[in-house]
């Protein structure tokens, strides 16, 4: 049954596939040249997560692949003082194109990311073109290639995914899974059934999040084929083909389980963001995103596939050259899928029942792909009757008129839609899509359409990028600043004897981008236990706790063995500061000392094992323009109506002369006077829900005077508060003595591997081994090679009690779900082998019956 389709695709028709890839990539490159963005001009393209997550993580991946990273694929020692890596690998790196970082020097990581994005867009165009040619081989080859380009450069790809590079794997996966299922559908061969699971596994390991959405979309497409394919044989045979596809995809997902299950558990134990309630967009604004050049990243769906493909998709229901059943089923499915983007329960299903913060239409590329499929099915059958041309033009014209005043519509949209629609009408009038039309006329019409579609795609990409850049933050590519900081970090590198911190001067993931082993770390898979432990120690945070802010505190550095740190000096010059700190592993008393000081000061002291802070009582001095009251929970402050903005308030106390004064106000919205550096903003008045979205780190504000007086000046513009024990006085002599004690408690030998630590020491007394790593789910420790078990915690750090005869402690990070994932993958492989065996036997028996 129709096996000739695959044979024809593998013949001369294949030229459309590379043509589509090159054309899509060319339009993307051309848009960058026109805009003057990196690497073609001075404008940066590292928008938001591209600059702060994807670029740093790909730099770390390159270090990992070249053997220069301190960790491995299980644990990342560079960030957060040691964090799980599998979740980040699955969410931000994947396996399909990220290996391309090896083709570029490390200081060209931004160029590598640009090439990866370009290649992904080209691959999506190629995959869609191949699928369309297999689905309907009868249409014009050049138009199939342009349909692939329209899909790969759809509004979602350019507006949402171009700066979220790994999302482009979902763009590739949708047509690839449809192609695999169509291959199984049309050929029903052993090869198709065996190859499909391995390709699906690769896709799911590339980016499970958007590939999950692509898989749901492919399920809809296969279901439409089962219900509508008039040439697919009996209904039972069509159901069998759909079932084969389902088995192939399910086995493929199971083969990826060794990475999927650990990622699932990491997501389950990650720092959550507040529950998001989906609110559908108004239908006028929603449908406006069907038009090319429209922009609304993070708020509306990028459905645009170009004017011509939109017209062709709208012609499908009215094209009598397409079988009636196909028109009804496919139109119904595409309409329902589009509506599902606006309904709460389908929204939850599309996003794996975890409604995201921002970009609620991340599945929009599936609808864009379906529109392209509809357009191709229509044109491949021949668009000849009047209604199939007139009605789409009327619908697009009505939509264009109704939405032209919306902010989603750019000037480019207002220009290209009528022009390209006019070109489409002219091409139709020249040819009427009849085989008898003169060759030169057909070529002229084709040239007009090709030129119009490629120019429209390029200009739309320019308009989208320009509109998005007006309100999204960007990061500069690798340059002299990063080079100088990396040189300083490398000059002090001494892992695992001590850590060196690049601090945060270029991105929130500088340890991965620059090097070293710092605290900075931003990811959606950051563990809740890590976030909570760091906040309790005095760290700040942003993005609901997903991005810790290093307080650059000497006690913290001593606890986490940060012996060298990059600091920015006057006029932007960077220098390296060093201080004596405790080692990575220490042996404490069997019953570690616990501080009684309140808040973060006490938590730090417990982690250090020494009393180094004084947390004195604070007196509040207010002006006539403000009120302040001390409560059980701390100090509440507010300016009075009509007062000058801001209002200054004084906090006074007394400390040991020469002590460092630190302010701990995680929810404090206002400014503080820093000795020798002027006023510094703690939290902005516009901060989203202080205490939920953002939290301020502990800050050094000055030093106690020779008489012991300590004054802290703050300014407020709105009601705010400080907690009990908001001011702490650090005694430098006590800290120095505490660090000396930690250094003297170092084990005789320490070995640090990719995801494990082994400490050897002399026996003699019961003690507690403390590892300067935050205890997150997955860590297991054993004493003298006995059975491993989860460690205890000391101020959030890994702590292991050891008896007087103990001589060795081994701690290793074991991803939860890894063992179960391996079992599931082996089981899936066994099922695949069994199915292959059954099919081989059945095929052999069938051949023998035919011979007899």
UniProtKB/TrEMBL annotation:
Keyword annotations of the record: Membrane, Transmembrane, Transmembrane helix
Name under which the protein is recorded: YfhO family protein
InterPro entries: Uncharacterised_YfhO
Keyword Transmembrane helix: yes
Pfam families the UniProt entry points to: YfhO
Regions crossing the membrane: 12-34, 85-104, 111-134, 140-158, 167-186, 198-224, 245-267, 297-316, 328-345, 360-379, 386-403, 415-433, 445-464, 820-841
């Amino acid at each position: 049954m129709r096996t000739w389709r695959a044979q024809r695709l593998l013949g001369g028709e294949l030229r459309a596939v590379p043509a589509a890839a090159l054309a899509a990539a060319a339009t993307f490159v051309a848009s960058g040249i026109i805009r003057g963005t990196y690497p073609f001009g001075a404008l940066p393209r590292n928008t938001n997560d591209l600059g702060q997550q994807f670029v740093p993580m790909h730099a770390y991946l390159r270090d990992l692949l070249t053997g220069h990273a301190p960790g491995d694929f299980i644990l990342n020692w560079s960030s957060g003082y040691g964090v799980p890596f599998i979740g980040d690998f699955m969410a931000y790196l994947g396996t399909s194109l990220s290996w391309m970082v090896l083709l570029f020097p490390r200081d060209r990581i931004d160029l590598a990311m640009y090439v990866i994005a370009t290649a992904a867009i080209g691959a999506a165009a190629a995959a869609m073109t191949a699928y369309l040619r297999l689905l309907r081989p009868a249409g014009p080859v050049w138009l199939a290639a342009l349909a692939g380009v329209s899909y790969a450069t759809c509004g979602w790809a350019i507006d949402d995914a171009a700066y979220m590079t790994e999302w482009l794997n979902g763009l590739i996966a949708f047509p690839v899974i449809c192609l695999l299922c169509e291959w199984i559908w049309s050929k029903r061969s052993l090869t198709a059934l065996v190859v499909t699971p391995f390709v699906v596994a690769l896709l799911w390991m590339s980016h499970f999040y958007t590939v999950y959405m692509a898989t749901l979309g492919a399920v809809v497409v296969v279901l439409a084929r089962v219900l509508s394919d008039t040439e697919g044989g009996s209904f039972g045979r069509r159901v069998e083909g759909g079932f084969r596809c389902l088995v192939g995809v399910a086995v493929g997902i199971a083969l990826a389980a060794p990475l999927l299950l650990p990622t699932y558990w990491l997501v389950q134990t990650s720092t959550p963001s507040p529950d998001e309630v989906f609110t559908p967009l108004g239908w006028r604004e929603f449908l406006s995103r069907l038009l090319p050049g429209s922009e609304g990243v993070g708020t509306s769906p990028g459905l645009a596939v170009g004017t011509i493909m939109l017209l062709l998709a709208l012609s499908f229901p009215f094209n009598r050259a397409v079988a009636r059943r196909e028109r009804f089923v496919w139109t119904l499915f595409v309409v329902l899928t589009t509506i599902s983007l606006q309904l709460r329960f389908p929204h939850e299903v599309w996003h794996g029942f975890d409604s995201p913060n921002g970009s609620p239409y991340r599945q929009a590329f599936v609808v864009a792909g379906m529109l392209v499929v509809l357009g191709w099915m229509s044109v491949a059958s021949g668009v000849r009757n009047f209604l199939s041309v007139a009605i789409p033009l009327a619908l697009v014209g009505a939509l264009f008129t109704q939405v032209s005043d919306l902010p989603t519509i750019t000037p480019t949209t207002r220009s290209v839609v009528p022009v390209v629609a006019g070109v489409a009408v002219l091409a139709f009038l020249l040819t009427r899509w009849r085989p008898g039309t003169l060759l030169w006329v057909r070529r002229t019409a084709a040239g007009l359409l090709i030129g119009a579609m490629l120019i429209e795609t390029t200009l739309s990409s320019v308009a989208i990028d320009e509109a998005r850049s007006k309100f999204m933050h960007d990061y500069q590519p690798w340059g002299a600043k990063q080079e100088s900081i990396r040189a300083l970090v490398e000059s002090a590198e001494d892992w695992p004897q001590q850590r060196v911190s690049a601090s945060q001067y270029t991105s929130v993931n500088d340890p991965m981008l620059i090097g070293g082993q710092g605290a900075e770390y931003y990811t959606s898979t950051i563990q809740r236990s890590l976030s909570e432990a760091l906040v309790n120690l005095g760290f700040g945070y942003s993005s609901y706790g997903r991005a810790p802010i290093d307080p650059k505190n000497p006690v913290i550095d001593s606890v986490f063995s940060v012996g060298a740190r990059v600091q920015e000096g006057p006029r932007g010059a960077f220098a390296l500061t060093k201080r004596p700190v405790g080692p990575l592993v220490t042996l404490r008393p069997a019953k570690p000392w616990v501080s009684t000081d309140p808040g973060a000061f006490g938590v730090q002291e417990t982690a250090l094992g020494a009393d180094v802070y004084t947390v004195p009582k604070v007196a509040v001095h207010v002006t006539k323009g403000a009120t302040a009251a001390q409560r059980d929970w701390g100090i509440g402050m507010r300016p009075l109506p009509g007062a000058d903005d801001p209002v200054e308030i004084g906090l006074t106390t007394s400390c040991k002369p020469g002590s460092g004064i630190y302010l701990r106000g995680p929810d404090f919205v206002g400014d503080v006077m820093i000795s020798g550096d002027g006023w510094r903003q703690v939290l902005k008045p516009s901060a989203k829900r202080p205490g939920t979205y953002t939290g301020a780190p502990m800050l050094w504000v000055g030093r106690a005077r020779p008489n012991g007086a300590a004054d802290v000046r703050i300014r407020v513009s709105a009601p705010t508060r400080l907690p009990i024990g908001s001011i702490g006085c650090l005694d430098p002599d006590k800290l120095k003595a505490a660090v000396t004690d930690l250094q003297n408690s170092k084990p005789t030998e320490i070995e640090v591997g990719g995801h494990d630590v082994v400490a050897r020491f002399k026996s003699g007394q019961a003690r507690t081994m403390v590892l300067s790593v935050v205890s997150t789910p997955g860590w297991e420790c054993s004493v003298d090679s006995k059975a491993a078990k989860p460690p205890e915690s000391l101020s959030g750090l890994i702590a292991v009690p050891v008896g007087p005869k103990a001589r060795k402690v081994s701690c290793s990070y074991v991803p939860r779900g890894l063992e179960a994932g391996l079992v599931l993958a082996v089981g899936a492989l066994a099922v695949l082998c069994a199915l292959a065996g059954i099919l081989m036997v059945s095929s052999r028996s069938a051949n023998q019956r035919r011979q007899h």
